Amino acid sequence: LKRPRRPCACPPPTAALGGAPLVGGMGATSSAPDLHGEEVFDDVTYEKIRADILKIMDSPEWDDGSYAPVLIRLAWHSAGTYCCRTRTGGSNGATMRWNLEAGDPDNAGLAAARKLLEPIKAKHPGVSVADLWVLAGYCAIEHTGGPSIPFRGGRSDKPERQAVAPGRLPNPEKGADEGMDVDEEGRIKGWENNAAHIREVFGRMGLEDRETVALICGGHVYGRCHNEHSGYAGAWVENPTRFSNEYAADMFGDKWILVGHDTKMPDGGDVPEEVRPSPGKRQYIDLSKYEPEEDEEREAREAPDAKEYPAGLYTCVSDWVNCREQPDVESPIIGRFVKDQEIHLVAVKVFGTAIRGRAERGGWVSIIASGGKTLFERKGDFDCQMLRGSYRAMADLPVFNNPEAKKGASAATVSKGKELDISEVQEGSDDGTAGCLLGKTPGGWALLYSPVRGQLAEQIVVGYNEKPRKPIKGQTGHQMMLISDMVMLWDPGFRQVLQEYADDEEVLRRDFGVAFKRLTELGCPWSPDFKAGRGCPWACGS
User: Fold this and answer.
1) Which of 19, 474, 8 is nearest to 241 (CA)?
2) What DSSP element (H or E) covers 217?
3) Kindly report the CA angle at 204 between 200 and 210, in degrees rounded to 5?
């Protein structure tokens, strides 16, 4: 279908104000000619860079324990400024290095992602910032279970005069009527104007409806909004660090209500803080949390004997499972495990109808959920080779002369918080009680776990708890959608594609991978969209 020819509505590129790069801005001197040579753009070099990116991906210091969502957003926003008529903007330039573009309100919060990658740029000075941002986005998508996207390097870092002024990225509320008026289906008045705005933004880049829905569905399964950045608050999905089709499925399966900062919920309470927008902002939140489960008649599964689930090596068989600070399901979430991941459970307990185990790296997971779903399967006994390595004392740790612990017989003590290297792990006993784990240190055998004394040390796992895990903020289960998300459900053209993705995650995985690669190559010399006469439906009538 051909679109009518229309003038491009892009704010033009303009010389940035101030004449200086961001303070400490990565690649601030890269307005010089592209320095890439064949020795830089080889597979070995990119694999080294990829490995360095993956080392910094997971961290309890950041939202939901992962930098992946903000790295994906960095790649997305660096590319999402492209205009196919003027051939300006896009990922080929990394012009968010400059104050004009970095200061776009839609880019708020991305300084953290840019700063995170600065040491990698310093280690690999030959790679352009533009390539590094895109590669980091690809790594983040694949690391979180999304599609594996083939990477091609060759982007250059452009000077300040090519920075893009604010106005090219989607505006979540643009076109919607003022106030809180909704129609009988709960749709904010004027939503059709917002749908037209979304089509205009993506059409400016040369993208059609299917690619638009794929990029929004795949992009918004990651991360969360912050009041201090955008004025909106909350995550789109329950697990915002893992690729899935939950965004699309929840659109159809959950109930959504428009809220503002001062909205009162059906029970008379305030909007939950996790999803409460700032004054003047409006968003939708999932109302399902406030209504009773429809499957209340489901019979609770009788808890199996815990002896059927002895301590040992377990494999996650669910897409993902929360790891909580304590066995109580209301306890804070401190991490997550994903399908096929193996962990050791040093203790297994019955809690009502659920079976939960304590992980060797700290925290509790459900083996059998309260409703009867199997989340972990036992693979075998302790693998003592896997259990060797570094540990952190969770309490004052007694050390014995042999792998048999006895009260009052310790030869030394490791203070709480100290790290120790374990060269060998054996099962032993504590005052005659079996089921203990002891680790060999240069000073003797440290008691790591005892049924009598509990877990005394947690194994340090690279990429998970090099620093002690902290409760992940904003994990009460509330979800939100922006008005520009909801139009995916309301607009007939968008809705048709959204339904496909809700029905089949693999279709979304395929389409998101293809669309994200195209998005991040717009404006690159090798991109088919860069060739004359292609890519811009507004200018070319394609």
Assistant:
1) 474
2) helix 209-219
3) 70
CA dist list (Å): 453 to 69, 351, 380, 431, 498: 39, 19, 24, 11, 52
CA-to-CA distance for 473 and 459, rounded, in angstroms? 23
Closest CA to 257 of 229, 291, 280, 295: 291
pLDDT averaged over every residue in the chain: 86
In residues, how long is the chain? 542
Using the predicted structure, report yes or no on whether residue 329 has a pLDDT greater than 50: yes
Question: How many other CB atoms are there within 10 angstroms of residue 446's CB atom?
Answer: 27
387 pLDDT higher than 70 = yes
Retrieve residue 391's tokens. 């540990």
Query: Taking the model in full, what pTM does it have?
Result: 0.75
- How far lies 38's CA from each of 42, 43, 45, 416, 523, in Å? 7, 10, 10, 52, 21
For residues 167 and 430, give the distance between their C-alpha atoms in angstroms, rounded to a whole number: 66
Report which of 530, 508, 511 is spatially closest to residue 521, judged by C-alpha positions: 530
pLDDT digits (tens, 9 = 90+) for 479-500: 999 999 999 999 999 999 999 9
Amino acid (one-letter) located at 39: E
| Partners of 257 in the β-ladder | 285
For residue 460, list its beta bridge partners: none
Q: Return the pLDDT at 293.
A: 42
Confidence of residue 5 (pLDDT cuts 50, 70, 90): very low
Q: What is the pLDDT of residue 539?
A: 40
3-state DSSP assignment of residue 483 = helix
| Torsion, CA 14, CA 20, CA 24, CA 26, rounded to 10 | 40
In this predicted structure, the answer to whether residue 210 has a pLDDT above a threshold of 90 is yes
**Edge-to-edge strands of the sheet including 376-380?**
333-338, 320-324, 364-368, 354-359, 342-351, 312-316, 376-380
Q: Which two tokens stand for residue 346?
A: 């040093």
Q: Catalytic residue positions?
A: 77, 236
User: What pLDDT score does 287 carry?
Assistant: 86
User: What value does the mean pLDDT take over residues 286-310?
Assistant: 53
**pLDDT grade, residue 299 (50/70/90)?**
very low
- Classify residue 2 by burial, with Cβ atoms within 10 Å: 0-12, 13-18, 19+: exposed
Q: HSE of 223 in the Cβ direction (CA atoms, 13 Å)?
A: 22
